[in-house]
Design brief:
Length: 163
C-alpha cells in the first residue's frame, strides 16, 4: 500500500493524508479543483492529519510518497522521520530545489532545499541507502545551446530495507 503525505486535491495513494486538503496558495490550478478539494469525501481514503505526526503504526505502508509538501511544514526533519517510521520499504519525496525558477513560491515556502541539506539529514538519521536526483531543470538559453542548467526540482528516494 502507498501513503500519499500532503495529497492536497491530487491524491495518488491508497491512503491519502493532508492537514489542509484544499488550496494552500499554489497547489490548485483553478477554482474547479478548489471546489472539488473542499468536498473531502471525494478524496479516496482521506485522513486529515499533520505530516509531522502521521497517525499510523510503524512499518504500515510499503511506500510513503510526498510531492511538494516538505517545503511547507514547520519541521521537515520530523516529517522525514515520520515518513520513514511508517514505511516498510521506501520513502519518496519530491520538492523544489532552492534555485527554483518560480519567485512567487519563495513567499509561500518555509524551507529551501538542496542535495547537501538532505545528505546532512540522512547522515544525522543514520540513513545509508538513498538516491537524490534532479527531476526538473531550468535552462538559460544561448543562441544554439543552453549555457546554464539550474535544478528546479529534486526527487529523493530513501530505501529502508533492501530486498
Amino acid at each position: 500500500m502507498i501513503l500519499d503525505v500532503g495529497c492536497g486535491e491530487n491524491p495518488r495513494g491508497d491512503v491519502n493524508l493532508d492537514l489542509y486538503p484544499m488550496e494552500t496558495g499554489h497547489r490548485a490550478g483553478d477554482q474547479s479543483k478548489l471546489s472539488r478539494a473542499l468536498k473531502m469525501k471525494e478524496i479516496p481514503n482521506f485522513i486529515r492529519a499533520d505530516a509531522c505526526h502521521i497517525p499510523f503504526k510503524d512499518d504500515t505502508f510499503s511506500t510513503v510518497f510526498s510531492s511538494q509538501t516538505i517545503e511547507h511544514v514547520s519541521d521537515p526533519i520530523l516529517m522525514i522521520k515520520e515518513m520513514f517510521r511508517v514505511s516498510k520499504r521506501k520513502v519518496i519525496v519530491l520538492c523544489p530545489h532552492r534555485l527554483t525558477d518560480k519567485p512567487k513560491l519563495r513567499i509561500l515556502h518555509r524551507h529551501f532545499f538542496n542535495m547537501t541539506w538532505f545528505v546532512r539529514v540522512f547522515k544525522s538519521l543514520d540513513v545509508k541507502t538513498y538516491k537524490i536526483r534532479y527531476s526538473k531543470y531550468r535552462c538559460f538559453p544561448h543562441v544554439f545551446v543552453p549555457i546554464v542548467r539550474l535544478p528546479t526540482e529534486m526527487e529523493i528516494v530513501i530505501y529502508k530495507r533492501l530486498g
